[in-house]
Amino acid sequence: MQPNKLKTHLMLLRITFSISAFTFGGGYVVIPMMRKYFVNDLELISEQELLDMAAIAQSTPGAIAVNLAVLVGYRISGIAGAIISCVGTILPPLLILSVISSFYKAFRDNKIISAILKGMEAGVAAAIIDILIDMWQGIRKEKNWLLTLLVPAAFIANFIFNINVAIIISTSSILCLAQGYFKKKREGKPNA
Amino acid sequence: MHNIILILLATFLRIGLLSIGGGYAIIPLIQEQVVNNHGWLSLQEYLDIITISQMTPGPLVVNTAAFVGIRIAGVSGAVVATLGSVFSGFIISILLYNFFKKYKHIDSISNVLKGLLSSSVGLIASAAVTIIAVAFFGTTTINFSTINIAAIMVFAISVILLRKFRLNPMLIIAATGVLGLILY
Q1: In a domain, A102, yes or no
Q2: β-bridge partners, A61
Q3: Which residue, A87, A104, A131, sits at the end of a domain?
Q4: Bigger pLDDT: B156 or B57?
Q5: What is the C-alpha separation between A132 and B21, in angstroms, rounded?
Q6: How far is it, in rounded angstroms, from Cα B19 to Cα B34?
Q7: Per-residue model confidence (pLDDT) at position A192
Q8: How large is the ipTM?
Q9: Are residues A33 and A68 in the same domain?
Q10: Which of A106, B70, B107, B136 has a 20 to 30 A CA-CA distance from B12?
Q11: Are residues B50 and B138 both part of a single domain?
């Protein structure tokens, strides 16, 4: 293996491992963390690319934290990068759960750990709100009524009506496919 | 021994494939397989895992796979179950990524990707409301009798630090953890 490639792979392993070790309160918090490292600091991918990957990761079976790490690794270093990022992401929970499985009751009832986690809830919520505001502004910039409307529609469908995520994702895909198709047809007409 | 590893692998492959969307929606799905179908965990143990999963980093599906795997078949069980739980996401997300990359010049296809981003924002917002409710009120619903003023202030300051000063989100989460130690 070339030394450069090895360096990239070690970097991927180190960053995905440390991000995963901080993934509290659901997988969404990995999006702002990935942005911090891969978009802002290392400038390896653009913000739009990361958001597209997040959309794919969210729309694919499995955990968004793992899927997004796989895609970032794949984008930076192909299949090898995807495998390394995947391993880096599943190692912390695998190690931690394996270790505490024998004394998990003591862990569960530990007051100090509970206090730290209770405090973290507000920080996790803030990190997710921060990225949500940026994502929402990006969608507004598209100036496409369907794309803008899909945000509250998906929210209401999921939060109020508890509609299955797979149904929400397929419906929005069909609507956007149709919109793209009819737009193309309308734009094509004057020349036809 | 050999047999149980294969059953673990097959079960978590299935769970990984069906657990789309993540979050609280997949809790009953995993329960169906691990508690009801295979009896690997009692209901109480499974509820404990959900609690522990919220106390430790990592996705619920990976945490459950690791926990069930190690209890049923040791370290090799944990590794096999965990790999099974992420396998379909690994393959499908790369396939989808390549699909959108290949056809990004076709308007209707690139519009679908934009639509996935829009619906993702709605879905993440839906999860965020639950996360905020837990942080502010200690329950998954909005309940003003158990309102936590300190948490709301920590949240507001964190949002300002993230948006105005672009601080590292990991730093914010670690700092709020330390604050929790002082506050609670």
Answers
A1: yes
A2: B20
A3: A131
A4: B156
A5: 17
A6: 14
A7: 38
A8: 0.88
A9: yes
A10: A106
A11: no
